[in-house]
Structures are given as structure tokens and as C-alpha cells.
Amino acid sequence: MLIQNLAIVVLAGFTGFLVISKVPNTLHTPLMSATNAIHGIVVLGAVLVLGMGVGDDVVSGIILFVAVVFGAINVVGGFVVTDRMLGMFKQKPGTSSKGKADK
Fold first, then answer.
1. Which pLDDT tens digit goes with each residue over 29-51?
2. What 3-state class would DSSP assign to 85?
3. 49 Cβ neighbours under 8 A, 6+ residues apart
């Protein structure tokens, strides 16, 4: 059973890498925002599972807690990166729409 689960994880990682590497740069920011929102729902589900006490032993509780922390770091970091990328397209104060400085 462990070998099958490891094979699924390896194949899923390989497939994800191939899919993501084919995404053009213009679609990266919108897709990143969408996946961060979906991952936020996953983190919420993990918090609910942790709160319901599904992992009765200490090891399961620690693994669930670490998964929630890593997921939350991923969501917050993804939104920070997305905000910075979108900030590159905002107009700077003191410039007109043509890119010349206003006087």
C-alpha cells in the first residue's frame, strides 16, 4: 500500500510539473490567484479535520498541524507574490497614461 501511495505522489508531482511548465507568462498571475483561493479552501478543510480529532494519536496530530501551517504559508506567500506582480502594472503617481512625467 505504501508503494502505491508513493507512486501516486511521484506521478502527481511529475504531472503537475509538466502542466505548470506549459503555462504562458501572461496567464501566470490569474492562475496563481485562483490556485491560492482553492488552496485556502483546502487549508480550511484541514483545520476542520484537525479540530474534529480525526488523528487521535500524537503523530497524526503533529502531521496535520504541520500541513495546516505549510498550507497557510503557501496561501499567504502566494497572495503576496500575486500582489507584487500586479503592482508592477499599476501607474506610478506623477505620471500620465502616456508614461511621461506630469509637470
1. 677 777 777 788 888 888 888 88
2. helix
3. 55, 64
Q: From CA 31, how far away is CA 26, in angstroms rounded?
A: 10
The reply to whether 3 falls in a domain is: no
Number of structural domains found in the chain: 1
pTM of the model: 0.57
The predicted structure's pLDDT at residue 10: 92
Grid cell 479552501 is found at: 41
**Quick check: is 74 in a domain?**
yes
Range of the domain at 64: 29-89
2 within some domain: no
102 in any annotated domain: no
Residue 61: CB atoms within 10 Å: 14
**Looking at residue 59, what is its pLDDT?**
83
- According to DSSP H, which parts of 22-57 are helical? 25-52
